[in-house]
Design brief:
It is a single chain. The protein is 27% helix and 24% strand. The protein is of the alpha+beta class. The chain has a single domain, classed as 2-Layer Sandwich (TATA-Binding Protein), CATH 3.30.310.80. Strands 1, 2, 3, 4, 5 and 6 form a six-stranded antiparallel β-sheet that branches. Strand 4 (85-91) and strand 5 form a beta hairpin.
Length: 144
C-alpha cells in the first residue's frame, strides 16, 4: 500500500485538476444576475455591488472588433463565439485562476458579465476588467 501512495496521490491530483479546468459548453449567462458572492459584475444585474453601467454600441461596432479589443487584455482567450455572443476566459497572473467574461450584442448594447469561477471575493478584479474593457472599447470607437 505504501508503494502505491504516491501514485494514488498523483492520480487524484490529476483528476481534480482536470475537473477544475473550465466550462466546455457553458451556457450563455449574460442575461442571468450574479450570485450573492462579491466576485461578479454584470450590466444585467441591478444590485449595486454587481451592477455595471450599460455599454451602448456605435454603428460601426461588430463582434469581431469587440473580440479583438477584449483579447488585447492580458491572458485572455476566446472559448466560444456565436453570431452575437462571446465567451472569453481570463487567467490571473500569478495563481492562474480563471474568470469568465461573457459579451453579447443585444439591440445596440453590449451585455457584459464577468465572474470568477472560484472563491468568495475577487477583490474587484472583474469590475476592473470590465471597466478596462469599457475604456478600450470607447478608445476603439466601438461604444459611445
Amino acid at each position: 500500500m505504501k508503494a502505491n501512495t504516491p501514485l494514488i496521490i498523483l492520480m487524484l491530483t490529476g483528476t481534480l485538476t482536470a475537473c477544475s479546468q473550465g466550462y466546455d459548453n457553458m451556457q450563455d449567462r449574460t442575461d442571468s444576475p450574479c450570485g450573492d458572492k462579491p466576485n461578479c459584475v454584470s450590466t444585467q444585474d441591478n444590485r449595486e455591488q454587481h451592477h455595471l453601467e450599460s455599454f451602448q454600441l456605435t454603428e460601426s461596432a461588430t463582434l469581431e472588433a469587440i473580440e479583438r479589443v477584449a483579447l488585447s487584455q492580458p491572458r485572455t482567450t476566446t472559448v466560444e463565439k456565436g453570431t452575437h455572443y462571446l465567451h472569453i476566459e481570463s487567467k490571473s497572473k500569478i495563481m492562474r485562476f480563471t474568470d469568465d467574461l461573457e459579451l453579447k450584442i443585444v439591440d445596440g448594447f453590449l451585455q457584459v458579465r464577468s465572474e470568477s469561477r472560484l472563491g468568495h471575493s475577487d477583490f474587484g478584479v472583474n469590475r476592473k476588467r470590465a471597466e478596462q474593457l469599457r475604456q478600450d472599447l470607447r478608445q476603439a470607437n466601438l461604444i459611445k
